[in-house]
Amino acid sequence: MRRGLRPEDLGDLLKSKLSCTLATYRRSGEVHLSPVWFHWDGDAFNIAIGREGVMADHVRRDERAGVLLYESELPLRGIEVRGTGTLFDDGVHELRRHIWQRYVGVEPPGRDEVEIGLRVAGEVRAWDFADDLEEFGAS
Question: How many domains in the chain?
Answer without folding.
Answer: 1
